[in-house]
């Protein structure tokens, strides 16, 4: 059995970097080496651009581009339910044993099938095919997102994690933005309430191309950070050790403190996309709104990531202020949502269903549009902070990151499944809104013990995996 020792030569800064210069080096991102964390994150970002990015574009339109939003909501229940268990007990093990390249390739293929099921539904009304493909997508999404998360949070050094998350979020949500714009163009003159066949076909082609990008990923051992440390050991982990590793993190009280915060990460999507965007707007406006929603995510995540890497504050202060800023943004945006809800009262026709249009509705469209745009900003800030917490907990170890991402994605899927069930039951939208906002407040309050525990941990601290020392001469790769 492998002994557990502190990280040695392969995870410590090279001797040619003076001790006083390590912090400055860690703030710099290497753009010239293919085996740098930056380029590996760019590659996995393009996978996300093609696969979940296009999925988000379909979801952002509302109802997967269908007039009947209950089918997509039921499919999402199947997706989230299947992925909840897979995220925690299967995907982290597969990622660490099989490696990120093949894990992500396998995980990306069900996205193509899912888009195809919606295309078939437009002609056959076969709800079972959509729900079945959604369940299979739950397995694929587990594999893709846990492997992606291990790369994004496990490869960079602590002072780079915010920017790396922001870079990923820009490229990833560029998929949702362009997908929504494609749908906007293809459905500009549509009055059917359902996107065209060519929209689904275009998405399937882009998803397939995204899968192929995963073949450019390197083994974690071959990834060299800016301080000359390797991202992971060369040894192949054993399956049983992986299960034990997953179980150990579940006993961490900090994870318990973050469970509602992680559950809330996707909880509001159903309200925002199916109850707000899909119910109020015409099909072309839903597509345009979706594009702006993902554009808001791109900008907000990167700006917030820059703050989380602020070299004028230590790690503890960045974390504490990160939660404070997230809480302020959350309350401001959802207060705007309350104002919109009051105008959607049952005895009011101020916002008639499926009639709000970016061209014909005039100034009345401005308020709901801006609200949906800032819903995107809120989500990006929340998600960026979630991944920052995972990077903090995992100590830049991709193996540990995969386990923490698995725990996060499990909690996220549980929350999403609950929200989808509420949405599919056609709950009164005022109640749905109130529950969403209350859960966000509860999640922020419950996370306070974790926030107060954040400290200024140095790079590589806490890595207790057996690392193989670099062969002489390889440190300059």
From TrEMBL:
Protein name per the record: UNC93-like protein
GO cellular component, one term: membrane
Alphabetical list of InterPro entries matching this protein: Ion_channel_UNC-93 (IPR010291), MFS_trans_sf (IPR036259), UNC-93-like_regulator (IPR051617)
Gene3D superfamilies linked to this entry: MFS general substrate transporter like domains (1.20.1250.20)
Keywords of the record: Membrane, Transmembrane, Transmembrane helix
Main location: membrane
Localization annotation: Membrane
Residues annotated as transmembrane: 38-55, 75-95, 102-122, 128-147, 167-188, 200-218, 253-271, 291-308, 320-342, 369-390, 433-452
Bilayer topology term: Multi-pass membrane protein
Top-rank lineage group of the source organism: Eukaryota
Pfam families to which the protein is assigned, alphabetical: UNC-93
């Amino acid at each position: 059995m492998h002994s557990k020792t502190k990280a040695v030569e392969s995870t410590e800064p090279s001797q040619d970097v003076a001790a006083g210069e390590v912090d400055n080096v860690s703030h710099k991102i290497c753009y010239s080496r293919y085996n740098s964390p930056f380029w590996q994150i760019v590659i996995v970002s393009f996978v996300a651009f093609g696969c979940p990015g296009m999925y988000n574009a379909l979801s952002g339109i509302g109802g997967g581009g269908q007039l009947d939003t209950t089918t997509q909501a039921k499919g999402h229940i199947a997706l989230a339910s299947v992925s909840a268990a897979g995220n925690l007990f299967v995907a982290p093990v597969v990622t660490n044993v099989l490696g990120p390249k093949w894990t992500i390739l396998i995980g990306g293929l069900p996205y193509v099938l899912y888009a195809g099921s919606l295309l078939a539904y437009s002609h056959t009304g076969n709800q079972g095919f959509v729900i079945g493909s959604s369940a299979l997508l739950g397995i694929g999404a587990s594999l893709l997102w846990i492997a992606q998360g291990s790369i994004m949070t496990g490869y960079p050094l602590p002072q780079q994690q915010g920017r790396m998350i922001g870079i990923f979020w820009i490229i990833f949500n560029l998929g949702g933005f362009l997908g929504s714009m494609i749908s906007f163009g293809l459905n500009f003159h549509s009055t059917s309430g359902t996107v065209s066949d060519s929209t689904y076909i275009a998405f399937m082609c882009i998803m397939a191309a995204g899968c192929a990008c995963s073949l450019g990923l390197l083994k974690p051992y071959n990834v060299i950070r800016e301080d000359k440390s390797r991202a992971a050991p060369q040894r192949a982990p054993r399956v049983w050790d992986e299960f034990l590793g997953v179980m150990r993190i579940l006993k961490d009280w900090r994870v318990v403190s973050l469970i509602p915060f992680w559950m809330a990460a996707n909880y509001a999507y159903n309200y925002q996309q199916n109850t707000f965007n899909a119910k109020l707007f015409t099909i072309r406006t839903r597509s345009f709104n979706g594009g702006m929603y993902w554009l808001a995510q791109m900008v907000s995540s990167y700006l917030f990531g820059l703050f989380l890497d602020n070299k004028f504050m230590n790690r503890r202060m960045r974390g504490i202020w990160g939660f404070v800023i997230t809480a302020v943004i959350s309350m401001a945006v959802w207060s705007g949502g309350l104002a919109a809800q009051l105008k959607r009262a049952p005895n009011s026709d101020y916002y008639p269903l499926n009639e709000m249009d970016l061209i014909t509705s005039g100034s009345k469209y401005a308020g709901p549009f801006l609200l949906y745009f800032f819903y995107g900003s809120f989500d990006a800030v929340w998600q960026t902070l979630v991944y920052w917490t995972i990077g903090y907990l995992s100590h830049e170890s991709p193996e540990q990151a995969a386990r923490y991402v698995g725990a996060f994605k499990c909690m996220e899927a549980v929350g999403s499944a609950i929200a989808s069930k509420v949405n599919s039951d056609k709950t009164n939208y005022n109640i749905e809104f109130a529950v969403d906002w209350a859960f966000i407040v509860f999640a922020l309050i419950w996370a306070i013990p974790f926030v107060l525990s954040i400290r200024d941990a140095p790079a590589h601290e806490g890595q207790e995996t057996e690392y193989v020392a670099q062969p002489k001469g390889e440190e300059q790769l």
